[in-house]
Design brief:
mainly alpha, 2 domains, 49% helix, 4% strand
Length: 321
């Protein structure tokens, strides 16, 4: 009897990532970096390589490709995952040239500019951006909201399994309550239509789908911002309705900014930066802002104090005397 062929390395990587319940975006990113690492070394198997080859690859990224420090770290994390979790080897002695960290100050909009951009957005896109600015969400967090995560009674949002696998609570802006409730009524009708057509299933995290067999069709587990069409889940192959895709909202924001004539580089993340900066401007302490943003380290939140001090650290120019 023939023995089954061993699974390909990248399939083993995917299996290990799913066992650890990493997101699909992390899976794609890690697989991409591991593939690039193998191709860089002319398709040698990682079992035949070690710290010197990893060092060479990371140095190439920093020196030749001149990637950002965060990009190089992402590549390193993917390769460490490959060796530690999949191949069960420890890499010792990595001594790569490190990419230089940039001193990045985020773009921040004034409250008036935020309202200008929002006034050129419509439907779900408008609601998503209102939550990004009004609640301090990352785009991925806003899109991943489920019905059960919206607490109208307490006027708050529960952000689950956010960056770093941490959950947190943040505010639900009062001005969004009424349009969000109306939006959810429409979403509920769409969900009923999906159920009548034999669909209505939604992706559930971890093993909840096995633990609660019918939860995937339950209303409370549905996405607040569902996609306009059904699609096949890339992992399970099940046809279901996922949440809105990031690219649609990113495109809508670019168009809205263009219409306003605001001459700043504005992305969806700019609204989260503006949320934090406006709270500090309004006198809230930095620990409160840190908690609302979900930052592990207050040093990350401190970047917004630098934004507040732009223009010579708050010093008045002698020309203005």
């Amino acid at each position: 009897m023939l023995e089954p062929r061993p699974r390909k390395l990248l399939d083993q990587v995917r299996d290990a990532i799913r066992v650890k319940h990493y997101s699909y975006s992390t899976e794609k990113t890690y697989v991409s970096w591991i593939r690039r690492f193998i191709l860089f070394h002319n398709k040698r198997h990682p079992n035949e390589m070690g710290a010197p080859e990893v060092t060479q690859f990371l140095t190439h990224l920093a020196v030749t490709e001149q990637v950002a420090a965060s990009t190089q770290n992402q590549a390193l994390n993917a390769i460490i995952f490959l060796y530690r979790v999949v191949l069960q080897q420890e890499l010792v002695g990595i001594n790569a040239v490190r990419a230089k960290k940039s001193r990045y100050l985020p773009t921040v909009l004034t409250p008036e500019e935020v309202q200008q951009v929002i006034s050129h957005l419509y439907g779900m896109y408008k609601l998503v951006i209102q939550l990004l600015h009004g609640s301090g969400l990352r785009l991925s967090e806003g899109l991943a909201l489920r019905v059960k995560d919206v607490d109208f009674a307490q006027q708050q949002l529960v952000i689950r399994e956010a960056k770093g696998k941490e959950s947190r609570v943040t505010m639900l802006p009062a001005c969004v309550v009424e349009p969000l409730q109306a939006h959810l009524q429409t979403v509920r009708q769409l969900h009923h239509q999906d159920l009548e057509r034999g669909y209505g299933s939604v992706y559930l995290p971890f093993a909840l789908e096995r633990k609660y067999p019918h939860a995937d069709r339950s209303w409370i587990w549905q996405y607040v911002f569902p996609a306009d069409r059904l699609s096949q889940d890339p992992r399970s192959g099940v046809t279901r309705r996922h949440h809105l895709h990031e690219t649609g909202i990113q495109r809508a924001v670019r168009e809205a900014v263009k219409r306003t004539g605001i001459e700043k580089r504005v992305t969806c993340h700019t609204f989260r930066h503006s949320f934090a900066t406006h709270l500090l401007q309004n006198g809230y302490d930095i620990r409160t802002v840190q908690e609302l943003l979900g930052h592990k380290d207050v040093e990350t939140t401190m970047i917004y104090t630098h934004v507040l001090n732009r223009g010579g650290k708050g010093v008045r120019s002698p020309l203005d005397v």
